[in-house]
Amino acid sequence: MRKTIFLLALFVAHSVSAASRLPNDVRIFVNNADACEHMAGECDSELPERRRREISEAIKKYCAPAKRQLPLLMEKYKAHPQILKTISKHAHDSVTSYTESDAS
Q1: Does the pLDDT of residue 6 top 80, yes or no?
Q2: CB neighbours (10 Å) of residue 58?
Q3: Helix axes 81-89, 49-76, angle to 10 degrees
Q4: Which residues contact 100 (CB under 8 A, 6 or more apart)?
Q5: On the CB side of 103, how many CA atoms lie within 13 Å of its CA?
Q6: Res 50: pLDDT
Q7: Burial (CB count within 10 angstroms: exposed 0-12, middle 13-18, buried 19+), residue 32
């Protein structure tokens, strides 16, 4: 049990450390892209109208900026393969396929 906790703590510390080495604009993109992916997964036509509206607003809040940021960051960091790898890892379908009508 102690070994598991230690390994988990080590993993979390490494993840936080790795994320803190990313440029700020990439960290913002990663946060937006991950939130976009999460909120897109929350869509369900069986939800109450109020909740569907909240999800739609959140999708617009996170997916629109992530979609705008993606090509800019890909161009800006094209000479930085590790950063491009991180950007690509977070370029979820919910980001790349987002359109303004998705938030309606």
Answers
A1: no
A2: 17
A3: 160
A4: 60, 64
A5: 14
A6: 95
A7: buried
Query: 98: left (phi > 0), else alpha (psi -120 to 50), else beta?
Result: beta
83-88: long-range contacts at Cβ-Cβ below 8 A with a sequence spacing of 24 or more? 83/22, 83/23, 83/26, 86/22, 86/26, 86/30, 87/26, 87/29, 87/30
Sign of CA dihedral 75, 81, 83, 89: positive
The pLDDT assigned to 15 comes to 47
Identity of the residue numbered 96 = T
Of 98, 34, 101, the closest CA to residue 67 belongs to: 98
CA distance 35 to 66: 10
Show the tokens assigned to 49.
Answer: 């109208």
Across the range 10-30, mean pLDDT stands at: 73
Domains of the chain: which residue ranges?
Answer: 24-103
Residue 4 has pLDDT above 70, yes or no: no
pLDDT higher for 85 or 2?
Answer: 85
